């Protein structure tokens, strides 16, 4: 049962004229971008594809540290806030309220992969783009470096079973002021976002093999793209990539595990306008 917590997490919601896709697409902004920009940049392709897009707004002081799922009220506040807001939005639209497709860019990608690692049952597909650094599937390392104290082997296996896309600009090699730089991270994950995306995709595949999990992890390089969301969309084809991925059939094993979540959900709901951009709380 989902309960709305009014005012806890604001969001922008783009509603296409006809909603065809039965799952909500949640698109999480980075520190240098906004929720409104997320919704607007996805609006055109969401309209053509019949996908409802929710862009949560983590820019307020209440959600400081959202990249690590934190907030001023505690270590998991941002994740809990999204749980409630996404469930409420999906329920209002008659979409699947149990799981959704999750996308994040930069700081939003940090949030997205950590949310999916701690709540794999809530995710249908995960698309992580240009994160500055990544949490590893290591139960011996404390969170957010690893998953110690935040999950168990069963949940880790469930996460590695998700369809996961790791994307990054082919020119995203700058070590800017928002990029986390430590000797340990540089040596372990790489010197820039491009190297770290490659590291994490390989890390997930290798961990899946060690845990005997059939994984579905892909790495996509966005052409002519540095570390700018608008550039990733307009030059790298990021929005098209996201829609292409979430439109792909889910492997049968994963579908069976989520059968209860998808039964009885309505789709194909049409609106009288040519799409709407709304603000929700």
Description:
By secondary structure, this protein is α/β, with parallel strands linked by helices. The protein has one domain (11-257, 271-280): Rossmann fold (3-Layer(aba) Sandwich), CATH 3.40.50.1820. It contains ten helices and ten strands. The protein has helices spanning 35-49, 77-93, 107-118, 153-160, 183-189, 193-210, 229-234, 238-247, 252-257, 259-262; strands at residues 11-15, 18-19, 25-28, 53-56, 100-105, 123-129, 163-169, 216-222, 269-270, 276-280. The strands form two sheets. An eight-stranded mixed β-sheet has the order 8-7-6-5-3-4-1-10, sandwiched between helices. α4 (153-160) links the parallel β6 (123-129) and β7 (163-169). It starts with 10 loop residues before the first strand and ends with a strand. The model is unreliable at 1-7 and 253-267 (pLDDT under 50).
Strand order of the largest sheet: 8-7-6-5-3-4-1-10
What percent of residues adopt helix (DSSP H or I)? 25-40%
State the major sheet: 8 strands, mixed
Shape: globular
- Structural domain tally: 1
pLDDT average, as an integer?
A: 89
Report the structural category. Answer: alpha/beta
Instruction: Provide the succession of SSEs.
Output: EEEHEHEHEHEHHEHHHHEE
Q: Specify the CATH homologous superfamily.
A: Alpha/Beta hydrolase fold, catalytic domain
Proportion of residues in extended strands: 15-25%
Under CATH, the topology can be stated as Rossmann fold
């Amino acid at each position: 049962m989902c309960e709305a917590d009014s005012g806890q997490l604001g969001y922008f919601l783009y509603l296409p004229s006809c909603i065809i896709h039965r799952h909500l697409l949640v698109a999480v902004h980075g520190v240098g971008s906004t929720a409104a920009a997320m919704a607007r940049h996805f609006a055109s392709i969401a309209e053509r594809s019949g996908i409802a897009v929710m862009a949560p707004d983590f820019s307020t002081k209440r959600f400081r540290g959202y990249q690590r799922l934190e907030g001023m009220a505690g270590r998991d506040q941002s994740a809990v806030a999204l749980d409630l807001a996404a469930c409420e939005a999906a329920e209002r639209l008659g979409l699947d309220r149990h799981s959704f497709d999750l996308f994040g860019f930069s700081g939003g990608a940090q949030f997205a992969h950590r949310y999916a690692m701690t709540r794999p049952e809530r995710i249908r597909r995960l698309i992580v783009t240009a994160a500055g650094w990544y949490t590893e599937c290591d139960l011996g390392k404390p969170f957010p470096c690893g998953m110690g104290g935040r999950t168990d082997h069963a949940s880790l296996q469930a996460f590695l079973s998700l369809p996961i896309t790791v994307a990054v600009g082919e020119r995203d090699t700058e070590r800017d002021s928002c990029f986390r730089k430590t000797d340990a991270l540089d040596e372990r994950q790489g010197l820039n976002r491009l190297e770290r995306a490659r590291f994490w995709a390989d890390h997930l595949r290798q961990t899946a093999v060690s845990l005997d999990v059939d994984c579905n992890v892909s790495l996509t390089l966005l052409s002519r793209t540095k570390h700018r969301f608008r550039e990733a969309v307009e030059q790298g084809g990021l929005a098209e990539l996201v829609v292409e991925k979430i439109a792909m059939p889910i492997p049968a094993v994963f579908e069976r595990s989520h059968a209860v979540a998808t039964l009885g959900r309505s789709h194909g709901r049409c609106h009288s306008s040519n799409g709407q951009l709304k603000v929700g709380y």
